[in-house]
């Protein structure tokens, strides 16, 4: 019997062998696993890579339940766990490249991903070429004989470009290139990676999977072709997570779809309101036509979330500070995906150090918002008050210049 979408989130990872008669899989903490016979130990050793208790770093029943749930949600053949999203990204890449290889990395990637390429992979002799997120068919021109991985992130970090993943994946596979996706924005819910040609789907489960801003956690779900290598290479690099964190990730899955729908509803209302404001040049929300790659969002995604950006018409750090410092419901913080609303600003010059190919061509300040689960009227009122403070500083500046 096929299951509805929300039913899957409630039931994923709740196999009786993990729950043992209760609703939630218990937290099983273990380093050493003991065996009563040589035969039992031998069985565990032979099956250690297949959800069998062997040693704590291989996982406990709590980890097995969470891994199984992630595979049920995203697809694929298996899920590797990491202590954070950055660890998931770096170890997924390291599992498949070696000295002399070439990596194609989207220029709008998460900043720590870029740092990893420039500071770690370069040291190991792996070359990285950054490409425009909207490159499409022209990705062919960047492929080299030694290109091993094509890394995508859609929507892109901060500027929210939505990539044409099926086209990129098709071309990559013509050259036997592994396609990786940072799928954190869609949370494995609103974009089905393996249906669109992705080989390894990576998430900072810290964000929407956990959903409460209290756990660091990363996941990488791989297709059958690449699962064994990802699993074993990650194990050899010492990757593991606390069973308590795995449990909290599993708990977050139960409300994931419901939370995402509310985040998406709230964010779209805020985005549409911002689009009417005279201070705003344009809004970069994938569900709106003003966002680059909106057509791919409409085609490939089944919903949105709370994260988007908007660009002001001007850049005035003093005015931006006035906007940010007086917020009542938006906090400043380097994350997103929790129940709370967040706000961060990026001046145009900041992109000079973050981008090499896809430096955005706007001159105003970019504001990134994560819209949480607060009352939407409170959030809009907070932003309105912030823009009034912003305008007051701009007016003061104009008056001083005219004197």
UniProtKB/TrEMBL annotation:
Record InterPro entries: Cys/Met-Metab_PyrdxlP-dep_enz (IPR000277), Cys_b_lyase_bac (IPR006233), Cys_met_metab_PP (IPR054542), PyrdxlP-dep_Trfase (IPR015424), PyrdxlP-dep_Trfase_major (IPR015421), PyrdxlP-dep_Trfase_small (IPR015422)
The UniProt record lists the keyword Zinc: no
Pathway(s) per entry: Amino-acid biosynthesis; L-methionine biosynthesis via de novo pathway; L-homocysteine from L-cystathionine: step 1/1
Any single GO BP term: transsulfuration
Gene Ontology CC: cytoplasm
Molecular function, one GO term: pyridoxal phosphate binding
Localization per Swiss-Prot or TrEMBL: Cytoplasm
Protein name: cysteine-S-conjugate beta-lyase
Organism whose genome encodes this protein: Vibrio navarrensis
The organism's taxonomic lineage, starting at the top: Bacteria, Pseudomonadati, Pseudomonadota, Gammaproteobacteria, Vibrionales
């Amino acid at each position: 019997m096929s299951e509805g979408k929300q039913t899957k989130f409630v039931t994923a990872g709740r196999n009786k062998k993990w729950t043992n008669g209760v609703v939630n899989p218990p937290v099983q903490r273990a380093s050493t696993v003991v065996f009563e016979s040589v035969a039992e130990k031998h069985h565990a050793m032979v099956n250690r890579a297949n959800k069998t208790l062997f040693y704590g770093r291989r996982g406990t029943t709590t980890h097995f339940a969470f891994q199984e749930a992630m595979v049920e949600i995203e697809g694929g053949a298996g899920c590797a766990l990491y202590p954070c999203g950055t660890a998931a990204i770096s170890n997924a890449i390291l599992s498949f490249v070696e000295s002399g290889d070439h990596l194609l990395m989207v220029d709008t990637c998460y900043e720590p991903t870029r740092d990893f390429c420039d500071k770690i992979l370069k040291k190991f002799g792996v070359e990285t070429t950054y490409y425009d997120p909207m490159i499409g068919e022209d990705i062919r021109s960047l492929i080299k004989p030694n290109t091993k991985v094509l890394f995508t992130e859609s929507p892109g970090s901060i500027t929210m470009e939505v990539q044409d993943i099926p086209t990129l994946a098709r071309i990559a596979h013509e050259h036997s290139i592994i396609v990786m996706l940072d799928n954190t924005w869609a949370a494995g819910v609103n974009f089905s990676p393996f249906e669109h040609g992705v080989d390894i789907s990576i998430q900072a489960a810290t964000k929407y999977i956990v959903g409460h801003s209290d756990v660091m956690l990363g996941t990488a779900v791989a297709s059958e072709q690449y699962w064994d290598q990802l699993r074993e290479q990650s194990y050899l690099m010492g990757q593991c997570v606390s069973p308590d964190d795995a449990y909290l990730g599993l708990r977050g899955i139960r409300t994931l779809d419901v939370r995402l729908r509310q985040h998406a509803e709230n964010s779209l209302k805020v985005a549409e309101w911002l689009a009417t404001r005279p201070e705003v040049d344009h809004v970069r929300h994938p569900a709106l036509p003003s966002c680059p790659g909106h057509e791919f969002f409409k085609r490939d995604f089944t919903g949105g979330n709370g994260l988007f950006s908007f660009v002001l018409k001007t850049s005035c750090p003093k005015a931006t500070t006035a906007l940010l410092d007086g917020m009542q419901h938006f906090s400043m913080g380097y994350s997103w995906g929790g129940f709370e609303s967040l706000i961060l600003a990026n001046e145009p010059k900041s992109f000079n150090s973050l981008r090499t190919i896809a430096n955005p061509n706007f001159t105003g300040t970019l504001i990134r918002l994560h819209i949480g689960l607060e009352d939407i009227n409170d959030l809009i009122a907070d932003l309105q008050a912030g823009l009034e403070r912003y305008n007051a500083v701009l007016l003061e500046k104009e008056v001083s210049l005219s004197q």
